[in-house]
Amino acid sequence: MIRSEDPWKQGWDLAVALMVLLNSIFIPLHLIHGHDPLLVVLVGVLGCLLYSADIMLEFMTVYPSGGEWLSEPRQRFQHYLKNGLVTDVLAALPWVLLGQAGLLPGGYLVLVLLPLLKLLKVNRTVRRIGQNIINPAIFRLGLLVFWILMAAHIIACGWIMVSGNPDSLSPLDHYIKAFYWTMTTLTTIGYGDITPSGRYQMLYVIMIEMFGAAMYGLVIGNIAGLIANIDVAKRQYRDKLDRIGAFLKYRGLPDQLMAKIHSYYSYLWDTRKGYDELAFLEDLPIALRESVALYLNKGIIEKVPIFEHASASLIRDIILKLEPAVFTPGDQIVRAGEPGRDMFFISKGSVSVLSADESMTYATLGSGQFFGEISLLLSMPRTATIKADSFCDLYRLDKLQFDRVVEQYPDFKQSIQTMAEKRREEIEARSARQA
Ligand code: CMP
User: Are 100 and 41 in contact (CB under 8 A)?
Assistant: First the structure.
């Protein structure tokens, strides 16, 4: 059994998509200009073989649905039936070869176009694979442009068929002229320099004009939305800033405070594109949240030396309990003498450890270090004041969670305790020296 997500199956789907594209460009061109018969046979045989193999592979492929893999043969068949079995079979029949061999009567020449049905599958394949790789809005925009060009190519070939080549242009010039006519008609510009004559040409033009009007509406309706969505994060962030700016003005906040708020938001934009990690995680089911949090917070786990030899279960337990917190330069994060409610791990930035009156700096802590553990471990008031020297990205662990973790993991408690005692002694020694 093959899973639809297997890399080689995706590679195969892309190879089929490429063949379909070649076929879709080549078959209409062949119909109007007639190509080297050997080339037609080659492309026809290759297409049939590839498409037939594709059908066999599809029967062996399991797809996910409703959270489980459809592995029963009946389920697989039903899934394929709903997702292009008929078009795949029609596209795999050797129409081009039959046409070439003169086995299709002239009026049924249109059957030769049946392999183009496979384009529907290209759409599904490209959507499935491409959407995770490229920005979804840019991807949809690209797909829209691709379909317009593909439709224009087929319509241009149709125009060549119905209008002939009265000016005896070279095949290339003839095609360019037909493509030009198609684009002016589809975009409803219609210069009128190329006009239909005769019943069939007029009927063809009426059909294309109707198609063009519908397509034009669809394109105009979609493009504005797609462009606005290219950078959803930036648009939402700008909207948020506008709303905040209006509110601050309305409440008449002092300029200095306003500037601080603005620099806080620009820091959030620079470091996390304005996304709220916590809100995002809360939306996920618990198991998935754990895996995502583990990935998102692996930076801090790698940075903090006391986690270096920690067991996988401690890391898993602690990771979900860490809450990101941002502080701006000069913010007081912890105040000496107050009861301790949480401890912090520094992911980015630096803080100063100060005496209660802020006259003495005991230490400067940076990325990978922690603070706020003494009051939690020794159940005493905060021993120092902590101020942010720069923008600081911290991870906060509240007292309740801290108590649970140290109770469950004595080794972790031991390493924090060693550090806490050393720091406390240092503070006491410095205070005694000063006194
Ligand atoms: P806590 O007492 O809870 O709050 C203040 C924090 O400052 C304290 O925990 C320690 O984490 C930290 N701290 C105190 N003294 C020092 C020191 N000498 N060096 C580094 N950090 C310290």
Answer: yes
What's the farthest any 2 CA atoms get from each other in the chain? 109
Distance 394 CA to ligand 1 centre (A): 15
Q: Whose Cα sits closest to atom 11 in ligand 1?
A: 371
- Among the listed residues 398, 392, 422, 395, the one whose alpha carbon sits nearest the alpha carbon of residue 324: 395
Joined together, the tokens standing for residue 397 give: 């662990």
Cβ–Cβ under 8 Å, residues 366 and 346: yes
**391 Rama class: left (phi>0) / alpha (psi -120 to 50) / beta:** beta
Task: Return the axis-axis angle of helices 255-272 and 232-251, rounded to nearest 10°.
Answer: 170
| Three-state secondary structure call for residue 3 | strand
> In which element (H, E) is residue 361 found?
strand 361-365
Q: Is the pLDDT of residue 285 over 80?
A: yes
Which residue of 364, 376, 423 sits with most ligand 1 atoms within 8 Å of its CB, as the best mutation to test the pocket?
A: 423
User: What pLDDT digit, counting tens, does each position of 353-401 carry?
Assistant: 999 999 999 999 999 999 999 999 988 999 999 999 999 999 999 999 9
Structure-token match 């499935």, residue found: 128
Task: Reduce the DSSP state of residue 105 to 3 states and report it.
Answer: coil
Mention every residue, 6+ apart, whose C-beta is less than 8 A from residue 363. 352, 353, 423
What separation in Å is there between the alpha carbon of 365 and the centre of ligand 1?
A: 10
Nearest Cα to Cα of residue 414 among 353, 369, 373: 373
CA distance 151 to 116: 11
419: pLDDT strictly greater than 80: yes
Is the CB of residue 209 less than 8 Å from the CB of residue 233? no
Q: Is the pTM of this model over 0.70?
A: no
CA of 304 to the centre of ligand 1 (A): 16
- Local confidence band at 107 (pLDDT 50, 70, 90 cut-offs): low
